[in-house]
Write a structure and sequence with these properties.
This protein has helices spanning 29-44, 92-103, 128-156, 177-197, 231-246, 251-263, 277-284, 289-299; strands at 20-23, 64-69, 82-86, 108-113, 119-120, 159-164, 202-209, 221-222, 270-273. By secondary structure, it is α/β, with parallel strands linked by helices. It has one domain (20-299): Rossmann fold (3-Layer(aba) Sandwich). The strands form two sheets. A seven-stranded parallel sheet has the order 3-2-1-4-6-7-9, with helices on both faces. A two-stranded parallel ribbon has the order 5-8. The longest helix is centred in the middle third of the chain and has 29 residues, at 128-156. Residues 45-56 have a biased composition (Polar residues). One of its GO terms (cellular component) is membrane.
């Protein structure tokens, strides 16, 4: 495939349509909402009702949709029209097996790296094995899947890759250091790789949601000695975090944001939604870093 002119930073990328859309972590939350949104686009091709949702966008509808789960057999409410495949991001062999299976469905046009885990705790008390596992899943696993799918997109001259991050990757919060670092790391991979793949018609973007009401608080992994030196502050932070998420945006709203870089002719590096993102990001450009850190921690009772 001939390269696009690399000296033109605003060159439109080739539109993607058809092919296979892959969404990791599709059994619940943002992943499930995303495969549901893609399934609606797929169904609309049969009615002729396809339309873009924002200015400067093109229509997109996949021929096949693949969602992943560690154990697809346990999914109780699968989305119609979605093929579910097993994937454990902490297991390189699982990534290899998944990629081989997924590529048999047809050429991939879209990859949404959504699967991940959450983790909270003071840095001093985070177990080493828990840190390693978090980075295996939230960073190395996502990069591993991308490395398997990207060559197919590059060779065909078109593709969109979306990394689902978190606004905490841009605005760190105390007692979330490991999670913050993992989301900042995946954003770094994405931002650097954008320039590598753009000449081949592939776009990479990061979507950073703020507080999301997906019930994550009930399954959050916590590492803290509540009777130790950090216990009281950690409890305060967690109470405020859970309250913010209970009043956060829906997974469906995040899925709408994920569709934007997929359909955009010129995908932006970063998309953000929720937690007053349209205010917070511009504010961060004019306030000192220390002031932004104070505001974020203050919002969480610290």
């Amino acid at each position: 495939m001939a390269k696009l002119p690399s000296f033109l930073p605003h060159t439109s990328l080739p539109a993607v349509n058809g092919g296979v859309a892959i969404v990791t972590g599709a059994s619940s939350g943002i992943g499930r909402a995303t495969v549901a949104a893609l399934a609606q686009l797929k169904a609309s091709t049969h009615t002729g009702a396809r339309s873009s949702t924002h200015t400067g966008a093109h229509s997109y509808a996949p021929d096949r949709i693949i969602g992943t789960s560690r154990n697809p057999d346990t999914i109780t409410d699968p989305v119609d029209g979605v093929d579910y495949l097993p994937l454990d991001l902490a297991d390189p062999a699982s990534i290899d097996e998944f990629a081989a299976s997924a590529l048999r469905f047809g050429p991939p046009t879209v990859l949404v790296n959504n699967a991940g885990e959450s983790q909270s705790g003071p840095l001093e008390e985070l177990p080493d094995d828990a840190l390693h596992r978090l980075f295996e899943i939230n960073v190395l696993g996502q990069v591993g899947v991308t490395k398997k799918i990207l060559p197919e997109m590059r060779q065909r001259g078109a593709g969109r890759i979306v990394m689902v991050g978190s606004m905490l990757g841009s605005f760190p919060l105390a007692y979330r250091s490991s999670y913050v670092a993992s989301k900042a790391a995946i954003k770094g991979f994405a931002f650097a790789a954008r320039r590598e793949v753009r000449p081949y018609g592939v776009g990479i973007s990061v979507v950073e949601p703020g507080s999301i009401n997906t019930g994550l608080s009930a399954r959050r992994t916590k590492y803290v000695d509540l009777d130790g030196p950090y216990g009281a502050e950690f409890t305060t932070m967690l109470k405020n975090l859970d309250n913010n998420e209970a009043n956060g945006i829906s997974a469906e709203r995040v899925a709408e944001e994920i569709l934007k870089p997929i359909t955009a002719a010129r995908p932006k590096p970063l998309y953000a939604t929720g937690s007053m993102a349209p205010v917070v990001f511009p504010l961060s450009r004019v306030l000192p870093t220390a002031a932004m850190h104070w505001l974020i921690n203050r919002k969480h009772g610290l």
